[in-house]
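ugh ok fine here u go
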Amino acid sequence: MASSESPGGRKKLGQLAATAICGNDITSSCLYVSALATMAAAHLSVFSLLIVAAVLFLFRKIYAEVVGALPLNGGAYNALLNTTSKSRASVAACLTLLSYMATAVISAIEAVHYVGSLWDGLPQIAVTIGLLAVFMMLMIVGITESAKVAIGIFITHLITLAVLLIAGLVWFLTHDAHLADNFDLQAPIQRQMIISGKMLDSNARTTVQKNEVISDVEMQLGNGTLPESLEVYFEEKGVEWEGEGVTRVEGDRHRFRIGTGGLEVLVQAESTEAGGGRERGLAVLTESSLMVALFFGFCAAMLGISGFESSANFVEEQQPGVFPKTLRNMWIAVSILNPAMALLTLSVLPVDEVGFHKDHLLSHLGFLTAGGWLKFLISIDAALVLSGAVLTSYVGVTGLVHRMTLDRCLPQFLLKKNKRFGTTHRIVIAFFLLAVSVLLVTGGALEALAGVYTLSFLAVMVLFAVGNILLKVRRQRLPRPERAPWVFVVIGTTAVAAAAVGIAIDQPKYFMVFLYYFIPALAVVMIMLWRVGLLKSVLGIVQYHSRWVLQFFGGISKAIERKIDQINSQQVVFFTRGDMVDNLRRAVEYVRDNEQTKRIKVVTVAEDISTISDKIEHDLKVLDEAYPEIDLEFVKLEGTFSPALIDRLSTEWKIPKNLMFIGSHGEKFKYDQASLGGVRLII
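structure:
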């Protein structure tokens, strides 16, 4: 029976604790996904969110099969690492890192937005950087997310959302709700393509001063001219201003039409006691067909399942049987909360006003339905649960980068630990700097951050599904408690891939921001994986030129040779159970193609060493001649193959467990993959 303790001696997480840790992440998304889905699909947002829930049901089975067969931390990276090459797994790792980065930024900026709804004039970018810095320091001193704290935040968050829904229901029954008007099937579906409480200039969104009166803007609208910043923006977009002026005035909202494509700009203002006004926001609306709006609403709504993958990243810390329950619980939360919040939004607000409150939509709904006390409660709750998501990102990225560094996918200097606290501070600092750069590049714009995050997150889900397919095809013998039907895998993968493509098409500039970070991260990893070949190329160039500059290049040449020898000196281990020469050949080829080494220990274990066939040794001699670049060492051990044996050999030989490999095992194998401490499946 599996132990109830983690390898480090810590008690493993039960259902509530595990659900709380990943639930804080996934349920925090309802704080902003309702606004994004409604902006994209208008009143169809509810249906978009329900479609997302259906897709997530399919991925419950996909995740359950992979993690059931490979119950190891690492998510998509681990799934691909044990089913295909390390370079392909590294793609998933880079996407996961970018996903963590965007999660930290979007959670931090949204936490600040909600606090900003209570504190007028809060410098949001500066405070967000400060919040990220606080968690950086907490990680450096060694404070990680407590399960008890996570449970407290999770329960508080659910209670707060329940209070909001009850208040919304009471308001719906006692007020003239907007639900019927918003669901007017005769009215065109208007997607809010650009939305802000900010003005737009040529390159970025800049905050409008709170005391800026709109009298000039009103005059400009009346004269049929655009504010200069909008004029520049639309000129860059290739949209002509036709000068039609104000087409409709509805209280404090002004509409005017531009271009020939049915675009509309909506300006919302708020009157002051002095009789002036303040510009509150600008939105560009465009009419869409039902299917187009539904599709792009689905793409935006996929952000609402962010955090679903997080449970797979700490599965080793969960008690046996808990993981599928966390998937079920998260699916239930997404299926109920996100559509309910969208329905509440459509009941309380006109659909074209949603975007003006996108940064703190739920606190605004709380204010409209119950007053300032509920706005305050939601804002504080949002700040707590979103801050928890920031900490989860730090914890997750630290573990993943540490694993990748041990696998020699990233530079080894990242493993250096702080002398005082014993933490990998270089990983934490690097993550903080990258997160701040994402914040500054996007200007903290919710749509930009959501686009970057959703693209990386969806790509990770697609690759996890690919890992499921490879598991079915290449690791058929590997036991697993659940199997996802092929139809689930195909439909789920297609839906998620379509959402990623839709976001890239709908928001090409955000796709470019995504590439700005993904390509360099992937380049670093690929350089690490191919560094021996690159060093040999440099060595060849140096040795060629050393004919003329021998004194200078001679030392460089020797340094490069020493570095190559150092990299190749790392031994790896392959445990074999029999004398199948084809398996041995495949193992050698895997190591040759995926690991920077020339030394393989081929180990076989038997209770009686005399029963080990001499054929294995003979086959290895043949392979040694066939692969002269690989040094094969055959080791016979008397005993029983077990996690204890792996621990002992790893210590004695100074070979990390993640550089020990085995072939797929069957139902009779008495240990699960997690108990082997990270030993990799390669055939």
